[in-house]
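Hi,

I'm pasting everything inline rather than attaching a file, because the server keeps stripping attachments. The sequence lines come first, and each chain or strand is labelled.
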Amino acid sequence: MGSNSLHVLKGINFDVKEGELVSIMGSSGSGKSTLLNILGMLDEADEGSYVLDNVPIKNLNEKVAAKYRNEFLGFIFQSFNLINYKTAVDNVALPMYYKGMSRKERVEKAHHYLEKVGLADWSHHLPSELSGGQKQRVAIARALASEPKVLLADEPTGALDSKTSYEVMDLIQGINDEGKTILVVTHEDDIAQMTKRIVNLKDGIIIDDSLVEQVRAQQYV
Amino acid sequence: MFNVERWQEIFETLKKNKLRTFLTGLSVASGIFILVILLGFSSGIENGVTTEFQQDATNEIFVRTRRTTKGYKGLNPGRFIQLKDEDFALITDTYDDYLEYRTANYSIWGGQIAYKNETGNYRVQGVLPDNQFIENADIGKGRFINQSDINESKKVAVIGNKVSKDLFKDENPINKYISIFGISYKVVGVYFDPGGEREESQVYLPLTSARVAFNGGDNIRNMSFTVKMSENFDEAVELSKNVTNAIENDLKEKHIISPDDTAAVRVNNTLEEAQKIYSLIDTIKAVFWFIGIGTIIAGIVGVGNIMIIIVKERTKEIGIRKALGAVPSSIIGMILQEAIFVTMFSGLFGLIAGLALLELVGPQVDSPFIKFPQVDFGTAITTVFILVAAGAFAGFLPAYRAAKIKPIVALRDE
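And the predicted assembly:
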């Protein structure tokens, strides 16, 4: 984009092991979204390497990137990004459509994941009929539905009040407890404290990377 | 294209976006509908005008004579000019190369014709065999007058369909005898004429027998010819005009008539008239096509416009789909397939609605100048496909661009 080049990330080196729950923190302009985009294969780094589950991610064309996104990654966005004319269950079923699953299998699985996030009774509601917290749970169910290796959450609680935020974090912690690797981008310290490791970015470099004592969200719910 | 899952996805999208689907469909359907109606009425006018002028051959030259109105070379005005066999022979010999059909007629108005108890008054004409082609008479049953009828002055008659219906009802008139002023003639044929009932209420006899029966001697009331048509219509008109003038001059010279006496000998040619009519039809057709193509272009622009708006509106959705693993080709495919389905479906709907309206209203139209308004189905289907292809093309560019947008850009909050 644009003709001026700007180095956003200037030497990032870190590993995330399977089952980790990592938060990436930093003020705006620190490069945390760019990092997440690269991890999410929505963008590609000019230099350096990115290895996901022993698969080197490089020289991606659109088609391969789409395939990797579908197989390896689940996204959770600040603004939920549900398709507004599809019901909750259809939204959750969408990534499985791109996996090539049959409709019956998709719907069955989608129901299973909606149940997991506690929205079994809301499966046939449109996003406009759901609260913010419920929408984010649908989005989480959708991210889980493709059974990804990594969940990438970009400010998952950014649009929610604190009570709902903690409910969502409780859900994310629960998923992590089952062994799923999760990366959360946030600028809220209390949210970051609910992860197991905080990576702090500033001006494109990691200034701090430390394990923290996880605060369980359960106690605030 | 034939992926069931894809179709399910598309139907679901269409169902959930009823207004958008309806508006796209409406603009396509109304475009095709208007085009069909326009083309239908254009062909209706063409049919109507053509049949109206189809009563007789269009390349006919008709010769008849009256009294002179001017004195010339010492002869008084008011002299009746009587055409004779020798005049007919003169014309046919002189212009043999240019003439296609030729006939000399001897007619009696209001002939009393009877079959058993049924009687009626019809025009009776003694003619030559070629008259069939000059009058555009279609033989329904039996045959027309032939050369041997002429040579042997046979007492045979060919009657019009109206005469047959009036006198014979449902009976087959062939080989029955009708009497004309008390003389019996055997019916050998029944003819139809595109000119309708008026032209079908006549009776044709061989020229020779008619003259024997009605004391005609070797008199002729009028003569008709058709000129050979050349490939080029304008050339044919030119030729027809020249022959017409030449015949008029020859006859005037022979009968010693003043060259500026317009009443004594009249030679008309219908081709010049026909030319005017055909150029009028061409103009009408061109105007209708112009409007029709304009409508289609408006439809294409409308569909393209809607496609651009749809893609714009769905940018975010496209971003979501890409983040969830949709490849660009599946995005483009989805949008195009949806667009083609909607335009095709509504295009065919407009086509059928237009055809149905023409079918229903067409026969009700009671004007001699609009007949059987209908559309060539091939033309209509072609326009539907042109519209679909254009709609798809108009949709392809924005779809392609949308599929190229990075999902992260598409997902960015506005």
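Chain B touches chain A through 26 residues (CB under 8 Å).

If the labels don't parse on your end, tell me and I'll reformat.
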